[in-house]
């Protein structure tokens, strides 16, 4: 199956898809963006907490100079 045949198939399937209306699409996009932002904030907080914990442990065990040992 060549690239040209594949592209034709993609276009054919794209025309058969029932795309959502704008009044359904916009709220869905908002939900996805909000969830992505919340997930990013949670991951950022976990990363910061983990980094702080590692720094505390380094200081407690004498490796507080910040250099990798």
Topology:
Elements: H1 3-16, H2 22-60
Compose a concise summary of this entry.
By secondary structure, the chain is mainly α. It contains 2 helices and no strands.
List keywords for this structure.
2 helices; mainly alpha; 69 residues
Biggest beta sheet attributes: none
Radius of gyration (CA) equals 25 Å
Low-pLDDT runs of 5+ residues are: none
Mean pLDDT: 90
Strand runs, count: 0
Based on Cα principal axes, name the global outline.
elongated
Helix percentage range: over 70%
Q: Give the assembly state of these chains.
A: single chain
Secondary structure tally, helices: 2
How far from one another are the termini?
A: 54 Å
Sheet-strand content, in percent, reads under 5%
Q: Provide the succession of SSEs.
A: HH
Counting helices, strands and paired strands, the structural category is mainly alpha
Structure notes:
The mean pLDDT is 90. 77% of the residues lie in helices and 0% in strands. By secondary structure, the protein is mainly α. It contains 2 helices and no strands. It has a domain at 21-61. The N and C termini lie far apart (54 Å). The chain has helices at residues 3-16, 22-60.
């Amino acid at each position: 199956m060549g690239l040209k045949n594949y592209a034709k198939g993609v276009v054919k399937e794209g025309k058969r898809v029932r795309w959502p209306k704008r009044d359904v699409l916009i709220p869905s996009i908002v939900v996805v963006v909000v969830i992505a932002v919340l997930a990013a904030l949670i991951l950022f907080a976990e990363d910061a907490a983990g980094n702080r914990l590692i720094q505390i442990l380094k200081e407690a065990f004498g490796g507080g100079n910040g250099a990798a040992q």
